[in-house]
Task: inverse folding
C-alpha cells in the first residue's frame, strides 16, 4: 500500500502546478493569489518534464495562443487558464517549470509549496507572506488520473476494491489538504473528478457509461464528505467542493443543447490516443465536446468553468 507521503510526492512532482497572481475583486470576492495543485485536467505544462504522459507536441495546442503545444491536454486553454481569465488574472498561466520563466515571475509559483513560502517570505516579509497565503484561492484536483489511469488502466485494481481505493484517495487528499492548512492556506477549492463514463474512451453504444459514472460519483461523494469533515474542524478556513462532474455530464449527454455536434469521439484520436503530429484531427474543435479520448475541448471547459465559478465563488468569505 502506498503511503500518504508517496501520494503527496506524486502530486507535487508529477502533476502539480503552483501559480501566484495578484487579482482584483470578482463579484465582491478578492483573492490575493491562486495556487493550483493539479492533474491532467488543469496541468499547463508540468508534464513536459515527465518521461511519459506528455502532450507537448502537435496537434495539442492547435487553438492555443501562438498555436503551440505547451503541455496542456487540450486544443487550447484549459480550466487553469480559464479560471485565471475569469478572475481577471491573465489570459494564460505558465507552468512553473517552463524553461523561459523569468526571475520577475518568482511570485507566480514554485514547484514545492514550502519552498514557495520560504522565498515569498524573503521577498515580501513574514507577515505579508502569511496574509498572501491565507487570502489565496488554493485549487486541488487529483482524482481524475488516480481513477482513470492508476485504477481503471493500471494495477491499483489488483490491490484494492474500487470503493476501498476511492476511500484511500480521499484519505490521501484530505491529509494533503490538512498539510496545506498547516502551511497557512485558508480558502481551498477541491475539484471533483469528471464524468468518466462520458469520455469517448468510456462511452457505451454512443451514450455515457452509467457504470463508469456511478464509479466516479462514488469517489465524488466520499470526497465531498471528507471536505465537509475538514470544514467542521477548521472554522477559520473555507473548503469548497467544486463539482465539475455535473456540468460535463450534462454537456456530454445533451451536446446539441450546448452547440456541439459530436460527443462520441475526440476531435483528435477518436476513441484512442491523440498521437504526435497526426493529421487525423477534426477541422473545428468547437463542434466537439472532447479534444482527445479523455479530455474536453476549450469550448467545453469554458462552459464547465463558468458553471463552477457561478456556483462557488460566493462561498468564499
Result:
Amino acid at each position: 500500500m502506498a503511503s500518504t507521503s508517496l501520494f503527496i510526492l506524486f502530486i507535487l512532482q508529477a502533476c502539480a502546478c503552483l501559480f501566484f497572481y495578484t487579482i482584483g475583486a470578482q463579484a465582491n470576492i478578492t483573492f490575493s493569489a491562486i495556487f493550483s495543485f493539479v492533474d491532467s485536467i488543469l496541468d499547463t505544462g508540468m508534464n513536459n518534464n515527465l518521461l511519459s504522459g506528455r502532450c507537448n507536441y502537435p496537434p495539442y495546442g492547435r487553438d492555443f495562443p501562438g498555436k503551440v503545444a505547451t503541455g496542456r491536454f487540450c486544443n487550447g486553454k484549459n480550466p487553469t487558464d480559464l479560471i485565471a481569465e475569469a478572475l481577471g488574472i491573465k489570459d494564460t498561466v505558465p507552468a512553473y517549470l517552463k524553461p523561459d520563466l523569468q526571475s520577475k515571475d518568482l511570485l507566480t509559483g514554485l514547484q514545492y509549496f514550502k519552498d514557495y513560502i520560504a522565498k515569498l517570505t524573503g521577498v515580501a516579509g513574514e507577515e505579508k507572506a502569511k496574509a498572501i497565503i491565507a487570502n489565496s484561492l488554493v485549487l486541488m484536483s487529483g482524482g481524475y488520473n488516480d481513477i482513470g489511469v492508476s485504477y481503471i488502466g493500471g494495477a491499483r485494481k489488483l490491490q484494492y476494491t474500487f470503493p476501498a481505493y476511492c476511500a484511500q484517495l480521499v484519505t490521501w487528499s484530505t491529509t494533503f489538504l490538512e498539510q496545506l492548512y498547516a502551511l497557512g492556506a485558508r480558502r481551498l477549492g477541491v475539484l471533483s473528478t469528471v464524468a468518466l463514463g462520458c469520455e469517448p474512451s468510456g462511452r457505451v453504444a454512443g451514450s455515457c457509461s452509467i457504470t463508469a459514472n456511478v464509479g466516479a460519483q462514488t469517489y465524488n461523494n466520499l470526497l465531498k464528505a471528507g471536505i465537509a469533515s475538514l470544514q467542521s474542524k477548521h472554522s477559520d478556513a473555507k473548503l469548497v467542493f467544486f463539482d465539475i462532474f455535473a456540468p460535463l455530464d450534462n454537456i456530454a449527454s445533451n451536446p446539441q443543447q450546448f452547440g456541439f455536434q459530436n460527443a462520441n469521439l475526440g476531435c483528435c484520436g477518436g476513441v484512442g490516443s491523440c498521437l504526435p503530429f497526426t493529421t487525423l484531427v477534426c477541422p473545428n474543435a468547437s463542434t466537439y465536446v472532447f479534444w482527445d479520448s479523455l479530455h474536453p475541448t476549450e469550448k467545453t471547459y469554458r462552459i464547465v468553468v463558468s458553471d463552477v465559478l457561478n456556483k462557488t465563488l460566493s462561498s468564499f468569505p
Observations:
- The beta strands are 25-26, 29-30, 33-37, 136-140, 187-191, 238-242, 262-266, 288-290.
